[in-house]
Amino acid sequence: MDSKPNSKPTQAFVPIKEIRDGILVLKDNSMRAILLASSLNFALKSVDEQQSILFQFQNFLNSINFSVQIYTQSRRLDIRPYIALLEERLKDQTGDLMKMQTREYIDFIKSFTESTNIMTKSFFVVIPYSPSLANTTNVKKAFFGNKTNISDEKSTFEENRSQLQQRIEVVEQGLVRCGIRIAELGTEELIELFYKIFNPGDVEKPIHVS
User: CA–CA separation, 89 vs 43, rounded Å?
Assistant: First the structure.
């Protein structure tokens, strides 16, 4: 007797319940905010600057009473948007010399990037918040039945989001003091980030935060 493999949809392996107003809501109702962080060339800093950065980072670690996750994403640089821009500039050139130089530059960039793996790195800080058990929708339903409505659920979400926002501000202030720029990912950026994570073979543009 032939047995069919027990196949499950991809969603079954993804712990994300929804992405709501720039916040990841997991299946256990815990929440995550993700910050995009700039890089810092520590080796090029003077000794005094290095010591100052280490001191500020130490203060940052001592200032938080919750865990954070630092995630680094390395991807091959997608040069296609830059090539497309150069092709448009080539059409605007009127002089033969500028046309020739632009074409030679485009060919050089294409040849160089095809023969060399140029990687781009993105740095993310994941900030968690787990609401108390008494505040979760499932527990409320267990005690109060289906009396919980959309208004109650929205109110609970906003309360938990406010707690998470306080953590975001603490992390942001601490990293800014270290000289690191921070931008919180919105809903569209989160969707793009997780699309890239679950589709590593696709070559796409780096994440841009407005």
Answer: 37
